[in-house]
Amino acid sequence: MKISVIGYAGSGKSSFATKLGIHYNIETTYLDKLHFEPGWVERDKETRNTMIKTILKNDKWIIDGSYTSAVIERFEQADQTFFFNFNRLKCLYGALVRRIKYRNKPRRSMTEGNKEKFDFKFMMWILFDGRTKKKREFYRNLVKLYSDKVIVFKNRRQVNCYLKSLGINDFKVKS
Description:
The protein is built from eight helices and seven strands; from the N terminus they run βαβαββαβαβαααβα. The protein is an alpha/beta fold. The protein has a single domain (2-165), classed as P-loop containing nucleotide triphosphate hydrolases (Rossmann fold), CATH 3.40.50. The strands form two sheets. Strands 2-5-1-6-7 form a five-stranded parallel beta sheet, with helices on both faces. The chain has a two-stranded antiparallel sheet with strand order 3-4. A hairpin with a 3-residue loop joins strand 3 and strand 4 (41-42).
């Protein structure tokens, strides 16, 4: 089984991917871990893309993240894709809750040593910069092109209903 989880920052993609990984017993790859080295240093794009391509060669995978450089290949290969299309304020709230929960420590989906942070730049990314017209159109086209294997979630209630249908109790992930 190959699963891709994409969507906007703060929507809960990583928590969902973790739950699926546990449920299906498939290692989850978090693209934030591939993108950032310790100290929040961005990894070279070519190196990151090589790492992603290596993962895509596996028989089964769950990949969490919306880095567009390899999203087409993931959509093509994925048996199922989940798109977290939450509104900006819900994502902002999710990112704030996450910041409180992981204050001064890294989360499971982040490179060791990179403590959770929330700053003005990230807030602007959630509200505006990560939702440009071009990016929204890109997602809309991908969802349309692969409509037979994409599930779009617009809120946490939909996510919880899906997880419940799999026998997974709720959206929360134990740290």
